[in-house]
Amino acid sequence: MPKIKDSKPAHILVRGTNWVGDAVMTLPALRALAEACPDSRLTVLTRSWAADIYRGQPGVEAILADDHRGVLGRSGLLGLARKLKALHFDLAVLFQNAFGAALTSALARIPQRWGYARDGRSFLLTRAVELQPADRLAHESFYYLELLERLGFPAPFSQPRLILSPEAVREADKIWREAGPGDWSAPLLLAPGAAFGSAKRWPVRNFAAAAEIILKTQPSGTVILGSRGEIPVAGELAKLLPGPVLNLAGRTSLAISMAVMARGKLLLTNDSGLMHLGGALNVPLVAVFGPTNPRATAPLGRSRIIRSRAACAPCLKRECPLERQVCFDQVTPELAARAALDILAPPAGRRGSPAVFLDRDGTINRDVSFLAHPDQFELLPGAARGIAALVRHGFKAVVVTNQSGLARGLFTREDLRQIHARMTSLLAQEGARLAGLYLCPHHPEGTVLSLARECDCRKPESALYEQAARELSIDLSRSIWVGDRQRDLQAAAKFGGRSILVLTGYGLEEARGSLEFQPTLVAPDLRRAAEWIVS
After folding, report:
1. Residue 373 has what DSSP assignment?
2. Which of 66, 65, 16, 9 is nearest to 41 (CA)?
């Protein structure tokens, strides 16, 4: 743990984020901070509407509302700074990126102020952490974890979990008692709103059509959730749904909405704060993304993402500038309903154990163009640790790699055998072992005639995964694909598995471009990917 004047901080101020979804994505880092500083008191400063996200979290002693207006007066920024100064914090950890967060903690005379060096605020921080290229491209939850890790804290990923207050649970129970006739034991949840803007909203008629398909197979009551600003769209949806319907939009606090959501069997939602709440409550969900990018803000729990395939998406605009919004043209109700039913009632006949299919170059080891000699093989930092964690948690780690250098005559099978012997040895030193290693030697432009051909085993084709499934008793539908290129991940969609793009190797270049194939998660590296998988 970092030294703070040669003593541990007794009182830490954590400047949380302002929006519900962002607040949920800080929870893994908040937990890591609490575990790293078990003897410290944590106070979270956030907007009042996000306070319930942080309530009851491990190590959090108090929550303060930052609803300041202007600069002067009791309710202004200077008044907030005076209030913080009176509480005698030793350290401020700033998850929020704003200049104002650093200014407030400096005016409060908090002796140590740590955060990312951005928004022109470095001179106000006592430790300013420089941004790395991957920080803006990986999932947002890793952004906060990486801040802590670079500050010297151990910061492993853990799934965000919300704590329900007893009062909110009682209010939710009262809602169910008064809901009227219908099956409310595990209702279908619908969240048709989105605070970012109207462009994010999947059409109400689509919500209604998808819900009708789901309810035919999985009958139950339906609950509509939303804020006061979403009352009109919720009311429009309620008129289109088959009964029984409970419209709670604008009628409950965030805490009570969380308690209501915890009972849901499935949440169908736009990209919104409610989407992140559902994930953190472990509610299975289907999320529809139009103009926004799931790369950084995908839900972290059991989910299926349905993404716009429009050429202009993701544009990140609040309102669509086109005469007709095209974001959701291919996001049909049938597509969303099919994803929902697959979560609720997975296809029968699944056998075998889950595997994690790993690309080699750029994922496990540093990418050297046509790696031809074992002396060139170098593990990426944390890769062996990540594989060891996967194996400890019951996953079969299987490497699948394209090796067109064989077809091109750049190295031999004996060279590959020695390279893989070195890889196996280095992994074993950290307790990591592979269940299998499969390679494609072909390439249509090869110079070795026996290998110069099209094939069904070169990624993104799937023959090697099917071979591994047969030989190693793997359930492909429960498996996860990890790699630094989209071609390493595309088989996940065919088999109904999940996928992680890592930002090592070619991953940064891939993520900066247009991702034709949307991975389940974007992680900084294999170690972080493994932490998410085992969590």
Report:
1. S
2. 9
Which pair of structure tokens corresponds to residue 379?
């593990």
State pTM to two decimals. Answer: 0.93
Residue 4 DSSP class: B
Average pLDDT over residues 3-28: 85
Phi–psi pair at 192, nearest 5 degrees? -85, -5
User: CB–CB of 500/522 below 8 Å?
Assistant: yes
Helices and strands (H, E) in the chain, number of each type = 19, 18
Q: Which helix (H) or strand (E) holds 523?
A: strand 521-523
Angle formed by the axes of helices 20-36 and 140-150, nearest 10°: 30
Rounded alpha-carbon distances, angstroms, from residue 446 to 46, 117, 402, 454? 59, 48, 13, 10
Output the CA–CA distances (angstroms, integers) from residue 62 to 41, 43, 76, 87, 207, in the order listed: 9, 5, 21, 11, 39
423-462 per-position pLDDT tens digit: 999 999 999 999 999 999 999 999 999 999 999 999 999 9
Q: How many CB atoms lie within 10 A of CB 216?
A: 11
Structure tokens at 465: 């995964």
Q: Is 244 exposed, middle or buried (0-12, 13-18, 19+ CB in 10 A)?
A: middle
pLDDT tens per residue across span 201-260: 899 999 999 999 999 999 999 999 999 999 999 999 999 999 899 999 999 999 999 999
Q: In angstroms, rounded to a whole number, what is the distance separating the alpha carbons of residues 276 and 21?
A: 5
Secondary structure (3-state) at 417: helix
For residue 345, what pLDDT is reported?
82
What percent of the chain shows pLDDT beyond 70? 95
